[in-house]
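Consider the tokenized backbone below.
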């Protein structure tokens, strides 16, 4: 049992990456959905939980249901103007407000700020007030001024969160911040983590070497310790789970004494040793040994060698700017005299000038704010949680428990508005109660009733029917158990290894239905119709929705994002790409078996009927009648292209290793131990795609062998890449390189991880993971072969890794006629004897032989070709393709309009005219009036969109002169 629920987000991760000129303007915000979607644009208004959004992608504003939105991210710069305020007010929930103190009494604190105006705050909701300029607060802040210390870690592996925290998910990465520290001073530090932490926090020299009298804060397995020289003392135990630590460290560099206290002043540890007398430039080194570490607070202050006492009810603690301490109850603040009135012992009052106050502690910080509350954060460290009641382009209005009246915030230097994103989690107390009923009392009926209550609260949680199946199995109700097990699998519980080994299901194992359930759990989850959406890509992200017809608008193609009730027209000039997941490639390959490449980056499926001296007669799938094209527009024709391999049904696939180490069917290949999956010819094409899936917490190393000469021999020539998993990232390492290229994964509250790989193999190896470019590498040598091998080198015990959604094909924007470089150079070099009468064409045979000369004519049976001053006739079935050698780009028509991808990257440029009954009508400068069914369109490119790595196929087939005639013989077909 013990299946704790993650909730599957209905996200279609689209494989693909593109680059274009920047679409998002410098002033554009980014709107983000909870499923990862995004859109550039600007806020227009917010009323009744509906956000009105203006995006440069659309010609009208969008009205979006805020329920599915995650955040609005503002463009940021490190050098922001900021709003100068004197104090930072921190609430019991950790919120931070900047302002100048105007008044205070026993109940209320009044501040005034440029961002909020004059506001009254409830004093019993405030933890402390801290002076901004004198307390040397380093974090919260920006990443500016920090620098990495290990050579293989870039500063981009560390980032500043929207709350100003410094964070990383990169294991074994070091970051340094130079700072001045007084001889006697206080260091406040707060760290948090998602799993078992591993870190070192220490004072070091600027080059990263330890100071002779310095100290370090370190994790040792499950313990946090303070070290100085060879001495150490335990501070606290650290459980293997998400957690945090908030410490005050008091340092006397002269005496070498260090005292570690809790934030409110309770002593945890003390250590002494060699004094720190070094004068060298110093700073803080933070070394993250594992994953997911966040530095939430880092502050340096003066100290007068007096350990603070914890605050109690009715008693405050004041820190002066000179490091002194005052205890008492602050009764009031008088703005006229600029004095704080402090009550100490009975009838003992004293005054403190406000400019001598560094920090005023009112109450200990309480729990973090609820995750269902809106959060707004600013570059200066201001953070507020509450309920969003109003939003305009300039201001946000928030209802917050700290004030009787709504707070208004100007959006100058706003960093992010994070909207409500409450996560469904099963209550821990009910989980414990459930386990007790099952394990100790064996009261399955009451345990089942408890689960049914959960089901009412969390109807989408697949672990609930699974745990109910366990209850029924333990109670001997076999049929009911299988019904619930099947339901849980359909809802998304597909942890095959867990099902197979769960002792609670022992009573089911002898039944044939158990093996059927295991097989069902190994299959990819089916997508319901509402999940299969189109995806709009822009340079900064993507957005799921639906392509729609727009009536009465200047542009006939519209887009309806998720969470909206109305579609809006796309902007024709916006550089975007729409990928359609309902496309079925309706083009009949028997009717259109050839591919025609034009000089204007157009490639279409067709049937070449006839070619004569000047023209080609062509039948296309989007013209009712055959059309005629000038040969000046043609760059190449392919008659035979490598087929597409989909899944693992091809007989050439081989799985090596023990039978018990893998599961294997037409759609899914699963490693449970070390093993190897190979195909000898899968890389005849230029693109492969596959998805790796594993349970969160599984660690594995897989070798990916590309272009293997002999896949059955592990040491045969190939390009070997290594893939590594971690809790929060997937990494790939290129052959001959030390550095790993990592892509971060969304691991929170997820039982399983998926990584979608797209590998484009042309003159470069371009590897994309989850749409993000992970690695690009030039191919400097000839490809040894066409094989591919997945070799599992190491895998966590009792875990598995699956490969699904495999496909290998020839990208339509890449040539199928791909001779070796030396052969192509030989064919394209013009000897002196041919300089006055150069060849116009190269004809390719199915076996790869090339012949240059001049195409005379072509019909459905015969190709007539002139070579070496003689005409020859070649049966058409012996011709793989023809390439035009003349540089006729000056005849290319401009693309204009939009470009459609019609499956396998075949492209067609058209000017859209209308969109009716799921048929797009358009005018092509080459093919005239075109009629394209929506189901045949795989992608729509707007704004003359062109992929950054895309070349016009065969554009490099250009003749070159030489000064001397080479001694060469031409191949013949």
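A designed sequence for it:
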């Amino acid at each position: 049992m013990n299946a704790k629920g993650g909730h599957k987000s209905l996200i279609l991760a689209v494989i693909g990456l593109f680059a274009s000129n920047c679409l998002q303007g410098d002033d554009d915000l980014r709107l983000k959905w909870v499923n990862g979607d995004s859109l550039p644009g600007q806020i227009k208004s917010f009323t009744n939980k509906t956000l009105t959004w203006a995006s440069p992608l659309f010609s009208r504003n969008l009205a979006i249901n805020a329920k599915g939105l995650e955040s609005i991210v503002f463009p940021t710069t490190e050098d922001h103007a900021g709003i100068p305020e004197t104090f930072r007010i921190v609430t019991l929930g950790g919120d931070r407000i900047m302002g100048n103190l105007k008044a205070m009494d026993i109940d209320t604190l009044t501040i005034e700020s440029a961002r909020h105006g004059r506001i009254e705050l409830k004093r019993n909701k405030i933890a402390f007030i801290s002076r901004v300029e004198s307390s040397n607060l380093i974090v919260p802040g920006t990443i500016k001024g920090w620098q990495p210390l290990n050579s293989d870690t870039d500063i981009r592996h560390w980032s500043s969160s929207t709350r100003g925290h410094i964070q990383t998910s990169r294991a074994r990465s070091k970051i340094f911040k130079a700072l001045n520290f007084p001889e006697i001073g206080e260091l406040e530090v707060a760290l948090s983590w998602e799993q078992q932490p591993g870190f070192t926090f220490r004072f070091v020299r600027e080059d990263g070497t330890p100071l002779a009298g310095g100290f370090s804060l370190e994790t040792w397995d499950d313990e946090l310790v303070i070290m100085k020289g060879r001495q150490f003392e335990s501070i606290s135990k650290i459980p293997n789970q998400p957690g945090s630590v908030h410490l005050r460290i008091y340092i006397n560099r002269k005496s070498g004494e260090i005292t570690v206290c809790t934030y409110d002043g309770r002593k945890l540890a003390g250590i002494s040793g060699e004094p720190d007398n070094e004068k060298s430039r110093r700073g803080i080194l933070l070394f993250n040994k594992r994953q997911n570490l966040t530095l939430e607070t880092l502050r340096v202050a003066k100290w007068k060698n007096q350990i603070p006492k914890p605050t109690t009810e009715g008693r405050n603690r004041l820190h002066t700017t000179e490091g002194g301490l005052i205890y008492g109850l602050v009764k009031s603040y008088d703005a006229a005299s600029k004095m704080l009135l402090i009550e100490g012992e009975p009838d003992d009052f004293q005054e403190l000038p406000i400019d001598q106050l560094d920090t005023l502690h009112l109450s200990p910080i309480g729990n973090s704010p609820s995750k269902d509350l809106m959060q707004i954060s600013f570059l200066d460290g201001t953070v507020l949680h509450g309920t969003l009641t109003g939003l305009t382009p300039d201001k946000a209005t928030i209802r917050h428990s700290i004030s009787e009246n709504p707070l208004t915030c100007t959006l100058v230097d706003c960093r992010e508005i994070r909207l409500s994103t409450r996560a469904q989690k099963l209550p821990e107390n009910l989980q414990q109660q459930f386990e007790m009923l099952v394990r100790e009392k064996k009261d399955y009926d009451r345990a089942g009733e408890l689960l049914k209550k959960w089901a009412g609260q969390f109807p989408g949680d697949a672990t609930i029917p699974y745990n109910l199946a366990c209850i029924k199995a333990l109670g001997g109700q076999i049929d009911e158990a299988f019904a619930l097990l099947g339901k849980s699998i359909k809802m998304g519980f597909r942890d095959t290894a867990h099902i197979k080994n769960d002792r609670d299901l022992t009573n089911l194992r002898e039944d044939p239905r158990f093996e059927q359930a295991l097989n069902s759990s190994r299959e990819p989850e089916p997508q319901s119709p509402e999940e299969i959406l189109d995806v709009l890509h822009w340079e900064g992200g993507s957005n799921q929705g639906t392509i729609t017809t727009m009536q009465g608008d200047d542009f006939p193609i519209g887009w309806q994002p998720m969470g909206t009730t109305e579609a809006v027209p796309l902007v024709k000039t916006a550089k975007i790409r729409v990928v359609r997941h309902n496309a079925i490639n309706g083009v009949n390959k028997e009717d259109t078996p050839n591919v025609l490449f034009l000089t204007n980056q157009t490639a279409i499926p067709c049937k070449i009927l006839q070619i004569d001296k000047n023209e080609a007669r062509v039948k296309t799938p989007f013209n009712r009648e055959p059309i005629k094209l000038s040969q000046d527009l043609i760059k190449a024709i392919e008659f035979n292209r490598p087929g597409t391999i989909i899944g693992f049904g091809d007989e050439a696939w081989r799985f090596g290793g023990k039978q018990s180490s893998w599961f294997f069917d037409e759609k899914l290949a699963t490693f449970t131990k070390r093993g190897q999956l190979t195909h000898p010819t899968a890389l005849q094409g230029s693109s492969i795609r596959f998805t790796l899936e594993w349970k969160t917490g599984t660690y594995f190393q897989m070798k990916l062998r590309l272009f293997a000469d002999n896949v059955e021999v592990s040491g045969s020539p190939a390009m070997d890449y290594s893939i590594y998993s971690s809790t929060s990232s997937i990494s790939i390492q290129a052959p001959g390189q030390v550095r790993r290229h990592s892509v971060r994964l969304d691991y929170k509250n997820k039982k399983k991880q998926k990584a979608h790989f797209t590998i484009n193999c042309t003159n470069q190896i371009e590897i994309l993971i989850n749409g993000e470019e992970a690695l690009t590498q030039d191919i400097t040598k000839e490809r040894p072969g066409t094989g591919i091998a997945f070799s599992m080198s190491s895998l966590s015990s009792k875990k598995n890794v699956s490969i699904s959604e495999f496909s290998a094909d020839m990208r339509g924007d890449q040539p199928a006629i791909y001779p070796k470089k030396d052969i192509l150079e030989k064919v394209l070099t013009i000897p002196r004897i041919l300089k006055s009468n150069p060849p116009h064409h190269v004809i390719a045979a199915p076996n790869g032989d090339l012949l240059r000369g001049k195409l005379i004519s072509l019909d459905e049976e015969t190709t007539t070709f002139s070579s070496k001053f003689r005409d020859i006739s070649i049966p058409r079935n012996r011709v793989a393709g023809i390439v035009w050698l003349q540089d006729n780009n000056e005849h290319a028509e401009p693309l204009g309009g939009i470009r459609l991808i019609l499956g396998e990257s075949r492209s067609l440029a058209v000017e859209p005219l209308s969109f009716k009954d799921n048929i797009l009508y358009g005018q092509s400068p080459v093919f005239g009036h075109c009629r394209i069914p929506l189901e045949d369109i795989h992608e729509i490119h707007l704004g003359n969109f062109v992929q950054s790595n895309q070349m016009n196929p065969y554009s490099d087939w250009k003749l070159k002169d030489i000064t001397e005639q080479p001694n060469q013989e031409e191949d013949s077909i």
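Residues 4-24, 421-428, 890-894, 964-973 have pLDDT under 50 and may be disordered.
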